[in-house]
Amino acid sequence: MASTKKNKTAEELATDLIELSDKYRKAYRKGPISIANRHAGRIYQVLQLFLAKGESGRTVLENLLNHPIAQVRLYSAGTMLRLDLAPKLAIPVLAHLLIDEVIPDTEPFERVALRSSANDVLMRHFGIESGISEELLEPLREYGIELPYRHRA
Questions:
Q1: Which of 13, 61, 77, 123 could form a cystine bridge with 93, CB 3.0-4.6 A?
Q2: What digits encode the pLDDT tens for the residues 36-54?
Q3: Total Cβ atoms within 10 A of residue 31
Q4: What are the backbone angles phi and psi of residue 107, rounded to the nearest 5°?
């Protein structure tokens, strides 16, 4: 089981995050959901510990933006955006989770959850309270990201 002790390095926390993300995905796919929820809680704890690591935590989170597991990218980008750390790096990652047709190694229901979570994080960041994805058009365009027609209501 991955430990979330405060004395771990940012790199060790990254290993824990990846392990827990994999466990979460397996439990989310096969159940029971209570185990998936337990892993989600541990993921949140690990993400909080990154904050205490200062610059090393930020650097590792930035590196995780390119991780092959989509959930790891979501957690890293979402954490960075909530803390206003490198939005120019985090926003495109979340936008791609929102708009990419194919997200490798995910089931259809996982893609729905990833898109919904990425959408929620982006809306929160841009202060959009309506829940209408169409309102992300302009803010994302400022980052050079165009939403496909299917996201325009």
A1: 77
A2: 899 999 999 999 898 888 8
A3: 10
A4: -85, 160
Nearest to 23 by CA among 46, 53, 57: 46
Instruction: Tell me which residue of 85, 72, 16, 81 sits closest to 49, measured CA to CA.
Output: 16
Q: What share of the chain is helix, strand, coil (3-state, %, to 5)?
A: 70, 0, 30
Residue 83's closest CA among 53, 42, 110?
53
Closest CA to 60 of 46, 70, 42: 46
CA distance to 18, 34, 35, 140, per residue, from 26 (Å):
12, 12, 10, 32
pTM comes to 0.87
Tell me the C-alpha distance between 77 and 57, whole Å: 13
Local structure of 97: helix, strand or coil: helix
| Token pair for 88 | 């120019």
Element (H, E) at 116: helix 108-126
